[in-house]
Amino acid sequence: MMWPPPLGRAAIFMPMSISSDAALKPSLGIIADDYTGALMVACYLEAAGIYAPLVFDAKAAVPGARVIVAGTRTRLAPVEEALSDIKAIADAFTQLGYSRLSYKTSAGFDSTERGNIGPVADYLADRQGIRPVVMAAGFPEFNITTHQGYLFYRGRLVSESIKRFDPLTPMSDPDLVRFLSRQTTHGVGLINHIQMRQGPQAVALAADALAGAGNGHIFFDISDDEDIEIAARFAIARELVVVASDPFAVEYTKMLASGEGPQKPAPHHAKGPAAVLAGTVGPVILRQLEAFAKTYPVLSLDLLDPRGSEAVIGGALAWADQHIGAQPFAISTANDAGAAERAQAAFGPIAAARKAEYILASIASALRDRGIRRFVVAGGETSGAVVRSLGIGAVRAFAEGPIGTGFCVAEGPDPISLFLKPGKHGGDDILIQALDHMV
Q: Is the peptide bond before 415 cis (omega within 30 degrees of 0)?
C-alpha cells in the first residue's frame, strides 16, 4: 500500500464517527508479547467501559466484542517461534472479522538485538499491506519515558538504570531508534517530543518526510500523556499498524472503540483456597515475599537442588498439602540474588528461567487438582507458564481497582481466579493485598 496522502490538522483531530451498527462489529485485535501486559491492557479497557475479552489460545477466540486481546509468550521466544505464534493469533482474529491488528509490547520495549519487536512489526505491516508502522515505547504514569528516541527508566537512561542488570533483556543501548534498527531491514525514523509540541500538522509533515525517505517504521517519543494522544490520533487517521507499549495501546483502542454498545456485567471471583507462585527474581519480589511471610507460610525452592525437578515438585506439593484449605501460602523459586546468579551460571539465563517456569507450572496444575481456585502469580513469563498449565484459554479481566490491574477470572462451571503480577511491580504488601481483593 502506498503511503497515505498528507492529512491536515482537522483530519488528524477529527473525532471518529461510528454508527450504532459499526459499534457492535469487530474492530481491533491486540496481540501482547506476554500475559501480564495483555491483562493490564484488558483491565484498563474494562475500566473505560470497553468489553475486552482476553485469550491465551487462538482456539479460544470467539466473536462478540469490538476489541479482543491476546496474551502470548513472544517476548523471549526465538524469532521463528514468535512469528508462528503471532500468525496463529492473527489468523484467528482475522477470521472473526477483526480488521485491524496491533502488537502490545512492554513499556521499555524489552527485547534483544535480534528481536522480536522488529520482526513482528514487519510481519504485521506485510500482512496488512500498510507502512510505515507507528512505534511508541514508555509509560509516563510509571516514570518510563522516551525523549529524542532515548529510553528513560524511572528518570535515568535505561542503560544506567536497574534494567541494565536484567538477565534476559538488559537493554544496554538507550537509543531505541538505533536499537530497533538492528531488528529490521526497514528504516526506523523518529518524530521527537519537540516536533510533537509543534502540533499535528508538523507531525503529519514530519511523518511524510520520513516515509518518503524510505523508513518503514516511525518511532514516536512518549515524554508525557499528551504525546500519547497526538501519536494515537495520527495512527488512527492514517489507519496505520501500531506496535506500542501499554498506555499507547490503551489510548489508541479507546479512541478506536468509541461508541461501543452496552458493557457486559462485571465478573465475579472464584471461591476456594488460594496460593501464591513466584518465579520472578530480584529485590522487589524478595521484599514482597518477606512481607508475605510475616503472615503466611512461604516455601523457597532451589533450582540447583541435586534431587532434580520432579523431586523438588513432589516435595513442594507434600509441603502444600499441609496448608491447603487452612490458609494461603506461597511457593517461590526466588531465594536471593546470589541463588539466581548461581542458577543462571549453571544453566544459562534462559534455561534457568524455563526450569523455574516448569517447576511452578507443574505445581500449579497439581494445586488446581487439590482444590486451589485462586492463584496469585508473580512474573510475566511465570504467569504464561502457569496459565498454560492450568489449561486456561480465555479470561475476563477486572477493571482497574485500588491496587491497579492484574485480576481476571476464567469463567465457567468451575471458575479460577488469577492475579498476574509483573515481576517489578507493586509495593511490599501487594501479595497479601491481592489475596484480600480476590473475594
A: no
Q: What CATH number does residue 141 fall under? A: 3.40.50.10840
Same domain, 60 and 192: yes
Domain that holds residue 361: 274-437
Q: Is residue 412 part of a domain?
A: yes
- Count of the separate structural domains present in the chain: 2
Say whether both 321 and 207 belong to one domain: no
Q: How far apart are CA 299 and CA 39, in angstroms?
A: 27
Distance between CA 177 and CA 290 in Å, rounded?
40
Q: How many CB atoms lie within 10 A of CB 52?
A: 26
End-to-end Cα distance, the chain: 51
Q: Determine how β-strand 407-410 pairs with β-strand 416-421.
A: antiparallel
Category of 34 on φ-ψ map: left (φ > 0), alpha (ψ -120 to 50) or beta: beta
Residue 306 sits in a domain of what CATH number?
Answer: 3.40.980.20
Residues 187 and 292 in one domain: no
pLDDT in tens, 201-252: 999 999 999 999 999 999 999 999 999 999 999 999 999 999 999 999 999 9
pLDDT along the chain (439 residues), means of 10: 35 33 70 95 94 94 91 94 97 94 96 94 97 97 96 95 84 95 97 96 97 98 97 96 97 85 81 96 91 97 95 98 96 84 90 95 98 96 95 96 94 96 90 95
pTM: 0.89
Distance separating alpha carbons of residues 23 and 10, to the nearest angstrom: 23
Same domain for 251 and 292? Answer: no
